Records
---
Amino acid sequence: MRIKKISRALILLLGFSGSGFVVAEEPQEPVDATNVLFWSQVQREKGFRNIDKILPTRKINAGENTLELPLALQDLSAARYSMDGKQFSLEDHMRSQHVGGLLVLKKGKIVYEKYGLDNNEESRWIAFSVAKSITSMLIGAAIQDGYIDSVQDPVTDYLPRLKGSAYDAATIENVLQMASGVAWNEDYFDPESDVSKAAGSNAMELFRHLNTLKVSGKPGEVFNYSTGDTNLVGAILRAAIGNNESAYTEQKIWKAFGMGSDASWVIDATYGAELGGCCLNATLRDYARIGLFALNDGVLADGTRILPEGWMKASTTPSKGYPGYGYLWWLRPDGSYAAQGIFGQLIWIDPKTETIIVTHSAWEKAVGKSQTAHRWAMVDAISKALK
């Protein structure tokens, strides 16, 4: 089985080629793994928590010491929102939006935790583009460790194979903000677009395609959602640290911060490398701990700093190219920010109230206006209902 190149728009989509699969100890429905976008609803709901049995992954081990999340459960039955003339409670939201897990942290304590789709506390779930934001934090860790000097460093300092390409003038900050100034066509309806040809490209295959692209403008000026830029961030990280992304995640976040369960990252079968923008698999509570790690600006309980001081503030400062985007984080006008993945994956963080909302989901569509409206209405309803 191998990961092949596929198409996508505004979000990273993976294409899977190979024979169908049947997951042990699950309702027996053979799944044609041609492309995750075309799985049935039943296939998504069991496949998203069984990626390790379907695709090649690299394990991320948890440590011996777990950061406890004390229970301080609140009655959030009053948390409701209106959509299309109907009222939705949190339970209504979970059923209608196929949510496999919804957890709310307030000041480090669990105030709400509910599972659906046969999930539980031990269920690992694919994060899709939530992984982008984690890769961004790992770039910060690499700067703190001295592997990278600054986000102002040229991309080609770390990836000399791109010297002479359209990336000659681009900095690490530019690609973190998806404003590299490199022409990239993200139209997944066009079989000749860059995303159709190279969305799943990695390592040498990625560099070969990026070397064919043209300059579209001055770096840092215009936001252009680019799978190429996203995968490039992962390549920069690997080149800088001289290791794979999973091992660095394990060292700098998973064991250091006290994640409660092992995780994994999907790797491509050709090069054994993680895509910088996709496919971490983790439990809901560890999603929440990732939010705490960001909220703490990468400082551990013993005061050890993993991220440079002020890294998260810089990461969530609106970019010149687009005020709704930072260093691979989506920004909301109220100062909150989020890691978002297709099919409804979410880590939402509000620094002002120290609130974190995380979801495991299997939306009926990868993205959509209706699903997005439901998600943010749910977040706002919870925020208003919290005591």
---
Amino acid sequence: MEGRLLLSTIPPVDNRHPYLRPLGVPAVRPNTPVLPFGATKVASFIDPTVGIVNGRHVIVGNKTFIGPYAKLNSTSGFIKIGTGSSILDGATIQSNPTRAKNPTTSILIGNFVSVGFGATVIGPSQIGAFGAQSKPTGIGANALIDSATIEPGAIVGTLARVGPGVTVPAGIYVLPGANVTTNAEASDPALGKVAPITATEASDLSKNLANNTALAAGYAALFQGDSSTGTTNIFTPARKGVFNGNLSAVEGAGNEPGSANGPSFEPTSPTGPTFQAPLGQQQPGLISNFRARVTGEVVFHQQAAIVAHSLGIGNSIRADQGQPFVFGSTFTSGDYVVINSPLGSNVASTGSGITIYDGVQAGDRSVILGGPGAKVSIGGNVIIGAGAVLDRSTIGAGASIGARAYVANSTIADGTVVPTGAIIINNKLVGSIQW
């Protein structure tokens, strides 16, 4: 018998101490992958690949999306995540890395917080806020929050680090690759590590959070079943219109939810990846035990077994925000590689898809991102270093991107060597990763 840890069993927020007890549900069965159990309108979704350690100390609020291969480790300490937040693919949240006896450390992630692809948060840390104090707050891809406070309404850029004891104030944007070690560096743009948040940055963060809230509802519907996805025979709670739950629908290579299940930016019908058949034609590839998490219109010009053999562990290739993704032959990747197109559209003419040509190699924890209006392509025989982030950029054939480099909104010519840790934005070298 399993205990049902329902939303109604969690005490309400204490208005005098809102950070102490935010409304939420422990991330343990049966509250996974849909949390709380049997929810629809307020459902959070935790991808089945998410690694959760000591789930009774991981409290998750409503309408939150936790993406593939994220890690929530509360071996000692607590992790509390608010409403409308997103912990994206490959992110790591670790409450107390020292695992000290009788810890007092926790990680509080408030409402409307986005923790980006491959980012790491180490406790004790607080990001954003709960209740009336909450504002959209963001952490960029492969960034590190190390025992710090990110106030509601602040944004930490891609591959940036905020060190122990530092507080980033509201309205501040930590620049990509910056290593912020003092409160002065975190608050004074004149010191060169932060800047005021622009209207575009704030708007993109809000849209990203809204998209992931929609994806939480969509994947919850795929798992539970509804009038669009049909019933399942695994379990049926006493609840009209919900049929829990087909785990294979949200595992491996599978469908994106489709706009009928919530995300308005997706096609009407759920769409999934295709692989090359033995005779050369493309065929649907809904494979629940596939080596990577692959969703949406992802086109592999290789057979499924060959693709799986070429991928490392923990790869997330999601075309559920922008498509199509088209792969040539002999694509190889390391571990925990992320390929996504945030804020894109699933209409091919908008240019929010990604094309990856033959012979591309992506290193461990590298991130490749598309976006609205960006014609993203990675040319043949490109090498992408470990931890590098490519954001809405075109990389010419034979180029080499150094480890932990950041290339954004740029075009890299054929054969170019981008140094390790270089930061290239809008086709200009603006600095290097500081940590």
